[in-house]
Amino acid sequence: MNNYPEKACDIDRLVRHPKLVAATLAGEKTQQRRDGIYAYPGETFLLEEVVFEVTSVVRQRLGDMSDADARAEGYPSLAMYKDLILKMHSGMEWNEDGLVWVHSFSRQQLE
């Protein structure tokens, strides 16, 4: 954890939009990109009584995103992801060199 900056937000705010919560619960969403750190690897969060663990947090340029990354975000393609992000964040421009934190996570099985 020492190589990461201080958290910008609480882990409970990592996945909040109802459609994204549903996609996460369905196993269609396994990543969330944010401007800041919301969780560190090994931390867990709860969505509707289901536990998810953050497996990695890495820095990525927006321009390095692929269709596979967009699908991991719960979207069918990079073009749709980009379009929706720009609609959600009024006035935002898609900066290929813009850096985001990619939080990858997986559903935890009860033992």
From TrEMBL:
Species of provenance? Methylomonas albis
CDD domains reported in the protein's UniProt record: ASCH_yqfb_like (cd06552)
Q: What is this protein called?
A: ASCH domain-containing protein
Q: Which InterPro entries match?
A: PUA-like_sf
